[in-house]
Specification:
single chain; 144 residues; alpha+beta; 4-stranded antiparallel beta sheet; 4 helices; 4 strands; rod-shaped
């Protein structure tokens, strides 16, 4: 098999004894052609995602299911972080008089809530709803 780099044009990837591998970028297909006994030539076209599936099956590429585990772990960590940010915001609201710190805590809580929007679509599991931000005691703000 040739070690030359594959370019973006359609063309031959490998020409092995009795096996020819071509790529068709216009159709996102890999074409395998093999000479059989009696001079018959068999051709099969495989879509790129099928090639990836085979590579995953034979351990040549990491399975995409590992990405789902990574997404679930990151979602779990992000939810825990949001929970702690909300807890810190409640603590600051109760024990701190500094209006800047309270506003900053509220904004950080709202940002954390925004980060978890849509995680349920990525993970397939319902996400717990966020507690509404508290603005009581903040100058010029009404309670939400």
């Amino acid at each position: 098999m040739s070690n030359r780099p594959i370019d973006d044009d359609d063309g031959l990837i490998a020409d092995l004894p009795d096996l020819r591998i071509e790529v068709s970028h216009s159709e996102d297909m890999v074409i395998l052609q093999q000479s059989g006994s009696g001079g018959d030539v068999d051709r099969i076209a495989i879509h790129r995602w099928q090639v990836r599936m085979l590579a995953e099956q034979f351990g040549l590429l990491p399975a995409r299911t590992s990405s789902q585990r990574t997404i679930a772990a990151l979602a779990r960590r992000l939810l825990k972080l949001r929970e702690r940010i909300d807890h810190l915001g409640e603590h600051l609201h109760t024990h701190v008089e500094d209006q800047y710190a309270l506003q900053y805590a509220l904004a950080t809580c709202e940002l954390a809530d925004e980060f978890v929007v849509g995680l349920d679509e990525l993970t397939g599991a319902p996400m717990p709803s966020a507690a509404p931000p508290t603005t009581a005691g903040v100058a010029g703000e009404s309670q939400v």
